[in-house]
Structure formats: structure tokens, C-alpha cells
Amino acid sequence: MGNCLKTPTADDISLLHEGRAGSETGDSSENLGPPPPYQEEAPIYHPTPNTARPVTQLTEDEQIRIAQRLGLIQHLPSGVYDGSKKGRECVICMNDFVIGDPIRLLPCCHIYHKDCIDDWLMRSFTCPSCMEPVDAALLTTYQTN
Amino acid sequence: MSEAQAALLLRKQLGDLSKSPVEGFSAGLIDDCDVFKWEVLIIGPADTFFEGGFFKAHLYFPKEYPQKPPKMKFISEIWHPNVEKNGEVCISILHEPGEDKYGYESASERWLPIHTVESIIMSVISMLADPNDESPANVDAAKDWREDYNGEFKKKVRRCVRKSQESV
């Protein structure tokens, strides 16, 4: 009790100075010292749909499977929504496609926002609209071409 | 998709449902500040023992929605083979795609990112009318349903219906 009413100590004043230096000059870099070493956050993958682990904690088999999946996804046609089909929405995020949105086309001809569908395909390799397995459909596409 | 996008998608559904309500249930947020936690009131489907009941349930959406399914729990007491005794709803569409060799085994029955509050509740309503006996979450309710449908099962369900009417 009563701690919050204490008179300012040396520590409090130093905190005030730091805060002011940062906000007033707008350039606090000289007060912060050297930047911390560069650290990129490890991307998270889903070796199975209900597990999520950073890339550094995957087994070799999981890494191979995920790399294969990434490779397959890269093979799916993608592009930019050009408005040729009006009033279409991405059924994953329920937002209308806007001209310029990156989109991906699945072999079953369903289209989605690239970010929406790529995230899903890493979890399950099926079209959310028609449930067609994407890899089987890919094979068919290759055979017919 | 980010948490912000998940919140946006849920807000959109909330708006759509309040603008054009769907027959059979009503939906809203438990707390207006948290769009990830919903409260729904399900009307017991006609021509079932659940008819006349108003069953309250909560839906808890993960930050990764719609890539991941929500969890659903009945707050009202309910006696059903696919609802745990603690109220947790156990239906396949709320399960993530299983761990199987090809990653798409029975994909149609599992979670899909195109499911909405409406499609989930519609599945739950059809589950109330038509339990899945193969993987019961409440073994005792499944036994009643299988062996004494018009006796013990009916009695317990009707008791839940009465209780749900009192609490509305």
C-alpha cells in the first residue's frame, strides 16, 4: 500500500528522459545502441493437420513431405484476378476478388486467393469446394495434356 | 490468414446472420468485444424428441479460423450420442483432416475452410435429428438410443427439453 504515491526516484527520472529522447527527436537509434543480431522467425509448418511446428523442429521425413507439398503447390497455376469473372468471391475468406488480387487456380477450376488456399493446401491437399484431391487431379491434367 | 482476417470473416458472418437470420437457430457473441466466442440458441428440430427445446451452445474459434475448425460446446444439458456429457459436440466436420497417407481420406466429412457458423449449426441440427452411432461421444446415450429409443432415450431427451425451456 502507498507504493504508488512514492516520490520519483532517480530511476523514474531516467525513464522519463529515455521516453522523451525517443519521442521528441523521432530518431531513437542513437540511444538504443547497436541493433540486435538479425533473427528471422522460423516458419511454422503442419506435418499433420493438427500439429504446428517451426521448421527447425521437423523430422527429415516431415521435411521431405512438406517440401514435396510445397513443390506441388508451386506447380498449380496462379495469377492475378483480372475481373473477367465479375462478382466472384473467395469462399475461404468470403471477400470478393478485387482486380490485382493474387489468385490460384486448382485443377478442378475452382479459384481462391493465393494466400487463403495455399495455407489450406499445406494442411489438406483437397479443394475445399468440391473436395477433389488436388494431386490426383494434377496427374489427370498431366495425362490429358 | 492472419488473426485480423479471421476476425473480419467472423464479423462478416455475424452481420450476415443478423441481417438475414436462418431458420432453426439464432447466433450472437458471448461478449461483444470478442468475435472469436459465439453463443447460439438451437431450436430442437421438429419431429424429433428434441422438438420444443431451446439449446444454448458456445462456439470457440481459433485464431487460425477458417483454416482450423472451432470447438463447440452445449451449455444446456443435452442427451445425445454425439455430445459428450460435458456438452462438447463431437462431429466429423469439426475435426481437422486426419493424419492419413494421402491427406484426403474422407475429406468431405472433415473440416473444410469454407464452413461457416451457419453450415456448422446446420450440421449440428441434422446431427440432433440423426445421430451417428458409429463413434459415440456419450456411450450411455448411444446405448439408450440403440436399445431403448422410445423408453429411456426419449425420457432423458424430453427431460433436457423441459429444462431448456425453463432456462430460456
From TrEMBL, chain A:
Transmembrane helix as UniProt keyword: no
RING-type domain ranges (all copies): 90-130
Stored Pfam families: zf-RING_2 (PF13639)
Keywords: Metal-binding, Zinc, Zinc-finger
GO biological process, one term: ubiquitin-dependent protein catabolic process
One GO molecular-function entry: ubiquitin protein ligase activity
UniProt xrefs under InterPro entries: RNF11_RING-H2, UEC_component, Znf_RING, Znf_RING/FYVE/PHD
Region Disordered, residue ranges: 1-55
Keyword Disulfide bond listed: no
GO CC annotation terms, alphabetical: ubiquitin ligase complex
Superkingdom to which the source organism belongs: Eukaryota
SMART domains: RING
Designated name of the protein: RING finger protein 11-like isoform X1
Originating organism: Branchiostoma belcheri (Amphioxus)
UniProtKB/TrEMBL annotation, chain B:
A single MF term (Gene Ontology): ATP binding
InterPro entries, alphabetized: Ub_conjugating_enzyme, UBC, UBQ-conjugating_AS, UBQ-conjugating_enzyme/RWD
Keywords annotated in UniProt: ATP-binding, Nucleotide-binding, Transferase, Ubl conjugation pathway
Ranges of residues in domain UBC core: 5-166
Residues the record marks as active site: C90 (glycyl thioester intermediate)
Source domain of life: Eukaryota
EC code: 2.3.2.23
Gene3D superfamilies xref list: Ubiquitin Conjugating Enzyme
GO term, biological process aspect, one: protein modification by small protein conjugation
Function: Accepts ubiquitin from the E1 complex and catalyzes its covalent attachment to other proteins. In vitro catalyzes 'Lys-48'-, as well as 'Lys-63'-linked polyubiquitination. May be involved in degradation of muscle-specific proteins. Mediates polyubiquitination of CYP3A4.
Family: Belongs to the ubiquitin-conjugating enzyme family.
Cited PANTHER family: UBIQUITIN-CONJUGATING ENZYME E2 (PTHR24067)
Protein name: Ubiquitin-conjugating enzyme E2 G1
UniProt source species: Branchiostoma lanceolatum
Gene (name only): UBE2G1
